[in-house]
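Course assignment 3, question 2. Fill in each field.
Student: A.L.
Task: Predict the tertiary structure for the chain below.
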Amino acid sequence: MEIGFPVKRWSHLHEILYRLQKGFIPTPLDKLLFILLYLKCYPTYDLQGLLFGLDRTRVCRWVKILLPVLEMTLGRECVLPARQIRSAEEFFRAFPGVKDVFIDGTERPVQKPKNLRRRKKMYSGGFVE
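Answer field:
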């Protein structure tokens, strides 16, 4: 009489958990879900890792592996949107109907370089010591 999981299922589950601990995404369906979720929601690597049982470094590696595969697969049909827009002109060419754009910026503290030339390069117009 078996109680709980049959041994065969348990060994399969154990193998999946072991692979996840090692940074594997076990099946092609899981890999597709992983990259589509990343593209749709654009979560941080930490959140994506939490959802898939990976650390942030592994998530970054998997994105770099799977994104080009998906682009090669779908790119011929031009299904994927452009990932980076580098200028305002490029933005308005891509979205001609847009009239107003709101940009929200957050200032991030940065450690000042000890080298005076590098420090001047980082100066943004605020208070200087």
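Instructor remarks: The first helix runs from residue 7 to 21. Residues 113 and 120 are 9 Å apart (CA to CA).
Grade: pending
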